[in-house]
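Notebook, p. 212. Picked up where the previous page left off. The plan for this session was modest: take the two constructs that came back from the sequencing core last week, fold each one, and keep the raw output in the notebook itself so nobody has to go hunting through shared drives later. Recording the first one now, exactly as returned: residue sequence, then the structure token string.
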Amino acid sequence: MRSYLDFEKPVAELEAKIEELRALEGGDAGVSVGDELHRLETRAAQTLQDLYEDLTPWQKTQVARHPQRPHCIDYVSALVTEFTPFAGDRAFGDDDAIIGGFGRFGGESICILGHEKGSTTEARIKHNFGMAKPEGYRKAVRLMRMADRFGIPVISLVDTAGAYPGIGAEERGQAEAIARSTATCLELGVPNVAVILGEGGSGGAIAIATANRVLMLEHAVYSVISPEGAASILWRDTTKAQDAATNMKITAQDLIRFGVIDSIVPEPMGGAHRDPAGTIAATGEAITAAFKALAHLDRDAIRRQRREKFLAIGRTLG
């Protein structure tokens, strides 16, 4: 069953009427509703297009958080063959908020890792809503270093509200784990490509998104703090999250203008949750193109390109 966001109410009402008419059309009453059904479908499609052509940053944040949006596991299942997951950081334990392993992407060896939020209540609890603990980032470091040793490119799929802020995580060195993961990304001699799938929150995102190419889905968001968190700090009022989202410039369209990301992956009309397969396919093509652009670079050039990319962001925005 499709879940609708608050601002999608006009579309929800029209699509509910469409379903009612389809039920009548398929019944035994012999009611002819073809013309009315076509009219409503056209109107619903136009209403959806009008809404999504002019989304506010807060509405994009809602779309990025949509529970039916495809998650990391969905991308791995569709894009990677012969996937072998790895578990544990070899220091404390495993963290299901970050999944990762090795497989084949486009027939070539690949290391893929990313945040997994979960699609059901049980899965969300298991994966801690995509909020990783130190052992999750240390697992990412372990995988990236192994990939670098064997000359295997890395794909990072980012979808998190931020790193887990619990006491246990802080006691086990959350800040150090994030910093080390970020540094490992920068040190890789193999190309790495990161994709912001939904939310890219704070250091929890940048820890695996410091890549040669950073891609972002059309309705994803990428920020140093959540709009609610920013509103709480700036105005001591979380109801001002909409104002914070607008002022923080967190959308893909803002970030490509600032040079923070390299390209935007278009989403189907109505968001990735309306056509997960199409979204995943488009993302796979964008990743392939990103790796192709880096194929001619040797290990030193890969590191240099990545370093210059992030230094340029500081020079431009500073």
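Okay, moving on. Second construct, recorded in the same format:
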Amino acid sequence: MSFVPPPYPYDRLRTLSHAASLHDGGAVECSIGTPIDEPPAFVVEALARAEGAKSYPPSIGTPAYREAMAHWLDRRFGVAIDTEQIAACIGTKEFVASTAHYLRLRRPERDTVLFPAISYPTYAMGATLAGLRPVAVPLRDGRLDLAAISDDDARRALLLWSNSPSNPTGELDDLAAVAAWGREHDVWVASDECYAEFTWSTNPQSILQHGTEGVLALHSISKRSNLAGIRAGFYAGDAELVAYLRAVRQHAGLMVPHPVQTAVAAAFDDDDHVAVQRSRYLARLTTMSAALAAVGIEAPVPAGGFYLWGTRTGSDGWTLAQRLAEIGGIVVSPGELYGDAGSAFIRLAVVQPDAALDRVAQRLHAYGSDL
């Protein structure tokens, strides 16, 4: 039987959107992590100059692009890495979805991709699109339970995905342990770190702090600088692995447009605008955590990220999401979208303006009892 793509997860939320839209001001859309705050003006100006738009950009990334990433990695994580170990990607979702396929060409004897049991669905879909076995790894205290990976799955594994801070849970993985497990079992490790700038409980962390052998770190401009629409990021790590992927991706014609590379390099060279955004997100997380508590949903401010991962004893995520739409006028994601293990939860992205979130919070506080 031919492959039939499943429904796109967020297309399943139409009934929630309709219920929320009946409130004054319409639905407050918090199911998708799309930034709504303004990107830095100097980045928009750099983009508007359209530098290099007439010619094909280098697939690997311009020297200025990769140097900006290298300086940022050093500044943010204390990681000194050569620019030859850094390459551009067209937004990190594209990289997540395609990398298992490219790596399978390198190691065709491996047929399994490991990923967190509660996670963004593209890790599993990337395995499926590559014709590989997607195998969910259970979580223990929010971290990959590496001891739960069977010997057979470890032998067959091509790639292990980590996501820290996690989307959707906001938990931080033990990146040292993840890197060590990959090396011990000869499995490549990809660490999706696109929310690292929004780490609340510790300093930002990267798997590259534990060496580059056998590992890749993946970063994006989307969340850091409110630039999801220009589709740009980078991957960095193991020199041989980066060289292989950048060659394959060059043959595939994958290129970040030159004007985008110029603008993104400027964004990564500046940290002040990120500090402002951090303050916004933390305040919104605090506001909405209290609002959910008012209706009996436990959703503490996370260790990282800009999502609240909430649950209420005796309820499933779809029921909670429906009631929040009806009572609060807000659209959130049922946790089942992120794996069966998340079915009792909802995910709320604090990406709407303060006024909209305050409006929802007032409704929930006024309701004043369990949903």
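Notes on construct two before I forget. The mean pLDDT is 96.
Flagging for discussion at group meeting.
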